[in-house]
């Protein structure tokens, strides 16, 4: 019975994906996975397969659900999709954390509703755990703790136990964490200015500048503010903190396409997303991608 059931689910998912493509007038892919090296080639193949299809869309919409991963891999994925599409949009029905948030910031538009969330952009790096397994660790947490110990040392309040802890730190690894943070902010600034802000031509919220042209310098300044704020651990307190649409719009002043009150769009997105995520969880898949040509 299972193959028949799976075949039925596949058919329904393909139908619902097709309706989303028609609604958004774009190619649509679904990505449910950590952002890791092993998924770059399958992702590339899916994109190339879509572009080789008869349908010639210049817009790609990515339905994204991810706990995060590698910022270097995000850069690879962005290079792939920007090679083939002029406009990239992201839909976040549930959540896209850390590197997933960075991925979204490379898009022209981000679609969310009141229950969707992004997260702080604390870059994660792969390290070797004591048991020999590879694990992801948030880089900024380590840097913040080391800086705290250094400040305590300068103030003469460092305990012996803390000194031992500080002496055990791997300087090469700490530098790697610093580079991950620098890369994250640099990519986010570049992508926001180049893509998200490309149609931001006049000021809309600043009462002093309303109607005036927006300069490149102002776009860059806003992008840096967003990048720095998203990477501030002291602001969010947790790597897994959920940042909802209201916070993104009010605190970060980031334009989000809110579909909360749009009945038809909500029905199409949730009808597809809820079915496919339930299918993934029931089958215990760690990673899953779907396009009209691939499942």
Which structural traits does this protein have?
single chain; 295 residues; alpha/beta; six-stranded mixed sheet; two-stranded parallel ribbon
How many helix segments?
11
Encode the helix/strand succession as letters. Answer: HEHEHEEHEEEEHHHHHHEHE
State mean pLDDT (0 to 100 scale): 87
The value of Rg in angstroms is 21 Å
Cα(first) to Cα(last) distance is: 19 Å
Q: Unreliable segments (pLDDT under 50, ≥5 consecutive)?
A: none
Structural class given helices, strands, pairing? alpha/beta
Could you give a short account of the major beta sheet?
Answer: 6 strands, mixed
Indicate the multimeric state: single chain
Shape field: globular
Helix content: 40-55%
Strand content: 5-15%
**Strand arrangement across the biggest beta sheet:** 9-5-3-2-1-10
According to DSSP, the number of beta strands is 10
Short description, anyone?
The chain is an alpha/beta fold and 295 residues long. The chain contains eleven helices and ten strands.
Explain what the structure shows.
The protein is an alpha/beta fold and 295 residues long. 51% of the residues lie in helices and 14% in strands. It has eleven helices and ten strands. The protein has helices spanning 2-24, 40-51, 71-84, 99-104, 139-154, 160-167, 171-196, 216-230, 233-236, 245-250, 263-282, and strands at 27-32, 59-65, 87-92, 95-96, 109-112, 117-118, 124-128, 134-138, 257-258, 288-290. The strands form three sheets. It has a six-stranded mixed sheet, with helices on both faces. Strand 2, helix 3 (71-84) and strand 3 (87-92) form a beta-alpha-beta unit. The radius of gyration is 21 Å and the shape is globular. It starts with a helix and ends in a 5-residue tail after the last strand.
């Amino acid at each position: 019975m299972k193959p028949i059931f799976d075949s039925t689910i596949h058919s329904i998912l393909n139908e619902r994906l097709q309706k989303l493509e028609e609604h958004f007038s774009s190619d649509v892919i679904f990505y449910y996975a950590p952002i890791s090296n092993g998924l770059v080639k399958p992702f590339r193949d899916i994109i190339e397969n879509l572009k080789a299809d008869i349908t010639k869309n210049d817009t790609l919409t990515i339905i994204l659900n991810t706990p995060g991963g590698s910022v270097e891999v995000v850069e690879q994925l962005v290079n792939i999709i920007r090679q083939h599409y002029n406009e990239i949009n992201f839909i976040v029905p549930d959540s896209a954390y850390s590197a997933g948030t960075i991925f979204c910031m490379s898009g022209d538009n981000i679609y969310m509703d009141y229950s969707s969330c992004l997260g702080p952009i604390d870059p994660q790096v792969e390290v070797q755990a004591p048991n020999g397994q590879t694990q992801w660790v948030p880089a900024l947490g380590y840097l913040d703790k080391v800086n705290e110990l250094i400040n305590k040392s300068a103030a003469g309040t460092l305990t012996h136990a803390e000194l031992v802890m500080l002496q055990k730190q791997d300087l090469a690894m700490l530098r790697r964490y610093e580079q991950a943070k620098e890369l994250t902010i640099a990519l986010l600034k570049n992508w926001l200015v180049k893509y998200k802000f490309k149609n931001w031509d006049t000021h809309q919220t600043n009462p002093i500048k309303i109607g005036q042209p927006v300069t490149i310098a102002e776009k860059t300044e806003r992008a840096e503010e967003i990048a720095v704020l998203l990477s501030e651990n002291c602001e969010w307190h947790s790597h897994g903190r959920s940042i909802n649409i209201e916070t993104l719009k009010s605190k970060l002043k980031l334009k989000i396409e809110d579909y909360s009150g749009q009945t038809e769009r909500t029905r199409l997105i949730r009808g597809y997303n809820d079915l496919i995520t339930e299918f993934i969880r029931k089958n215990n898949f760690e990673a899953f991608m779907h396009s009209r040509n691939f499942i």
